[in-house]
Amino acid sequence: MQGLSDRTVILAMVLTLFLVFGLIFTTRAPDRSGPAHLLWRDQAPAVPSAPESSGTLRI
To answer: Residue 10, CB half-sphere, CA atoms under 13 Å: how many?
Structure first.
């Protein structure tokens, strides 16, 4: 039994990679409906400069 040549095996591997990447990029959901919206956090409340007298640690 004669094996496959190196060129045939490399060609099969490259074609398989193209097929896999082609399937990945064609089945992705189109996510380009508009500009990307950034979600901003609300501004943190003002922290009093003097420590509280309760003795607890404020994080």
So the answer is: 3
**Cα 52 to Cα 26: distance, rounded to the nearest angstrom:** 59
Q: Tens digits of per-residue pLDDT, 3-59? A: 889 999 999 999 999 999 999 888 876 666 666 667 777 777 776 666 555 667 667
Q: What is the DSSP letter of 23?
A: H
52 Cβ neighbours under 8 A, 6+ residues apart:
58
Which pTM does this prediction carry? 0.45
Tokens of 8: 């045939």
Helix, strand, coil percentages for the chain (3-state, nearest 5): 35, 0, 65
8-state DSSP, 54: T
